[in-house]
Amino acid sequence: MADRFTKMHGLGNDFVVIDARESAVEMTPARAHAIADRRHGIGCDQLILLEPSAKADVKMRIFNADGGEVEACGNATRCVATLIGQPAVIETLGGMLRVTPADGGAEVTLGEPVFDWERIPLAMPMDTRDMPVAWDELEHGAAVNVGNPHIIFFVPEADAVALADLGSRIETDPLFPERVNVNVASLDGENQLQLRVWERGVGLTQACGTGACATAVAAIRAGLVASPVTVSLPGGDLVIRWAEGQPIVMSGAATRVFDGETDWARFG
């Protein structure tokens, strides 16, 4: 019997989704990396594996294109919400997420953001609202954990930053023992942000849901915007709502591209 998968994307951030709730699929970093390969595999930014959960409606495991398993992915969560087709609770390594499908997408309620340096995590104590570190023109970053670690830089023009170079350097800097997602953002109107993201273990992507959440939270804390915030990424817009002491709520599109069949044994 052929193994089935669904190809999906959230604003161009694309996924291979495998529903293993009824029939288990063994997934290793090497296999996930092979499946994600765009030349020799199926191709995706992240591989999503759905498994049974004893604590929620479904467990979602997330593997980046490099094969590493990570805690959270906002765009993938919206995609999974549309596959489930009804309000649900999803278990992830980053915590429990509540989802509600909507016309053309979904709303996702994440947990409260974390700002303590130990829980980002960082390698040394520092103010995560205004970090005393710099990489070339990127300085005074803010660190936020929204289920996974992010650093955010507010710049005059996000498109002008050489993120393909700086992103890889910052991601692997020893300051971040678990590596980090790198966000550069600029104001784009009242309560609107333009955002580009270098994703840990992936690289530049069309969209990053957790990056949009982390960036909106950092901008609200800095007094640059007020909730709700529209975050414009290369792949499209997300709307983020957040208030101090409250969970983050993200709304945006999710698209089912096609269903496919293969043999996972082909991928190691």
Can you describe what's shown?
The protein has 268 residues and is an alpha+beta fold. The protein folds into two domains: 3-110 and 254-267, Diaminopimelate Epimerase, Chain A, domain 1 (Roll); 117-246, Diaminopimelate Epimerase, Chain A, domain 1, CATH 3.10.310. It is built from four helices and 19 strands. The strands form two sheets. It has a 17-stranded mixed beta sheet that branches. The longest helix is centred in the last third of the chain and has 13 residues, at 209-221. The two termini are 18 Å apart. The mean pLDDT is 97.
List strands and helices in order, with pairings.
Elements: E1 3-10, E2 13-19, H1 29-36, E3 46-51, E4 58-64, E5 69-70, H2 74-84, E6 88-92, E7 95-102, E8 105-109, E9 134-135, E10 138-139, E11 142-145, E12 149-154, H3 163-171, E13 181-187, E14 192-199, E15 203-204, H4 209-221, E16 229-233, E17 236-241, E18 249-253, E19 255-262
Parallel strand pairs: 2-3, 4-6, 12-13, 14-16
Antiparallel strand pairs: 1-2, 1-19, 3-4, 4-5, 6-7, 7-8, 8-18, 9-10, 11-12, 13-14, 14-15, 16-17, 17-18
Catalytic activity: (2S,6S)-2,6-diaminopimelate = meso-2,6-diaminopimelate
Family: Belongs to the diaminopimelate epimerase family.
Keywords: Amino-acid biosynthesis, Cytoplasm, Isomerase, Lysine biosynthesis
